[in-house]
Structures are given as structure tokens and as C-alpha cells.
Amino acid sequence: MKVLVTGAAGFIGSHTAERLKEMGHEVVGVDNFSPYYNVSLKKLNANELHVKGIELLNIDLYIDELIEKLPLDVDYIFHFAAHPGISKSSTFEEYLVNNIVGTHKLLQFTERNIKTPFFINIATSSIYGLEATYPETEVPKPASYYGVTKLAAEQLVLSKVREKKLQACSLRLYSVYGPRERPDKLYTKLIDCGINNKSFPLFRGSEKHLRSFSYVQDIVDGIVSIIGKENICNGEIINLGSETESTTAEGIATVEDILETKIDMEIKPVREGDQSRTKANINKARKLLNYNPQTTLRKGLEAHVAWYKANF
Predict the structure, then answer these.
(1) Parallel, antiparallel, or unpaired: how do β-strands 76-79 and 2-6 relate?
(2) I need a surface site. Which of 71, 77, 142, 158 has the fewest CB within 10 A?
(3) Does the pTM exceed 0.70?
């Protein structure tokens, strides 16, 4: 099968592209190498993909003419590309054009594809709002530009299913961590601070937040399991993540234990729109995908630390 992966130089997208290649698929990756974080890190991921025989195209879904630059015979599209996270330095327009307009243009491209690809939209638990502990039937209450625009993108995709123009599903991911995690996210930043004797910027009260910290390879297991289950997944929203909750404080303590160091905390003001609790309700994923994440937080963070040490 020929597979298109958008956001393929990013964290989860690069791991998924690799897994799909290992499964024997022909994989074409797309990334715009946005400077949201250090582009050299995305290039590091891109080099890993290149070594494994994965073609990576430098394309911006919002700006470029996709019909002229993308292959027209793909069987699946895994859509990771987005403006991520919750950041005061990001404008609403950046979330709008990358998450909504970019998705819209990609959907328009599918109508010109020789085949009608199955479209896997990668969404987020931020769609649920300040607490994300619910089944997929819960009414969304996003509390950030990121959550709002990712919900809109998800609905754009599912609207094509309702119009019977496309087969698709949307996967809502929970607090993913592991090798290649973005430098602005919790664990890469923690590991950096611990190894390099720097202070970690901790948002006030966030040490009490509960999270379904989900190891990236467990998440990829669920994502790629859609292949072969298109009929039962078409039109569905599916949560993917760990059912185990840990506080941010427990995560910090685990990193400190692995590194055998104490990390200094620099307390910052509360971050608006930050979720106080996430716990993945994966009953639907278990039923439809036989999904069963197994990696413990300790084991996942040991792999994360090893990756960081090997590369930085």
C-alpha cells in the first residue's frame, strides 16, 4: 500500500512513518519544517527516515499547491501536520491556517487523488477541555486555540464521511512522550534541565495535574492498527492513550531518579488553557482495535533519556 504521512518529520509522525515502512508499505512523508521549535531537530528525524528509505517532501499544506506536489495514488493518509501545543507566543492565525485551513486543503486534495484514500486524522485529548477523562460521546469543551482548531479540523474530516465523499476516522491522543518528543514538552525539557544543570520552568500548580502519560510506541500501535479495519473505523472517533494516571510531580521524580540528580524548579505563573486531568478512556479502542498499551512510565522514560543522551 502507498501511504502519505503529513507532519512526518515531527515527533509521532516520524515514528509512525517508520512503523509503516517496517510493515512493508511504501511511505511518502510531508513536512513544512515549521520553526515552532528548532528545525535542526526535525532534520534529525528526517535523516532517520531517509536512512530507512522513506521519501520526505518539504511541503506546506496551507501554502503549496498540493495537487502539483503530492503523489496522486495513495491508499492511506495519516494526518499529523498541525500547529501544536499551548503557547503564548503562538497566534490564533497560526492555529487557524495550520490546523483548519491546512486540513481543508488536504481534504480537497483527496478528491483529486486517483484512488479514494482512507483518511486517519490525528486529533488530541485537548478537544475535551480542561478535563479529558471521557468516552468519545462526550460533548467537547476545548479551552485553548489548539483544542478549538483541532476540533474544527476533526469535524472537517468527519463531515466528508457524512457526505459519503471519503472514508475516515479521527484518533484523539493523550499526553504522548518518548524519544523525539518536542523540546517544549515536559519530559524532553526535564531531561535537558537535569543533564545540563538548568532550572526547569514549572507552571504553578501543574505538579498536581494528572496525566495519562502515553509512550509513543504504544500510541503508534493503535494508529497503525486502523489498517485492515477501515469498515468498522469509518466515521469513528477513537481515544488512544494509557489508562494509568500519574501526576506531573511523579513524572518529575521518575526522571530525577533515572538521572540520579535533583532538578531545580523555577515556578512560573499558571498557564491558561492547561488541562488539569487527562485519563484515556480506551474502551472503544479495545473493542475496535484490540488496543492494549503496556509500557510503564518508568520504562518509557528510560528509553526517552537514552535517546536524549545519544543525540544531544
Answers:
(1) parallel
(2) 71
(3) yes
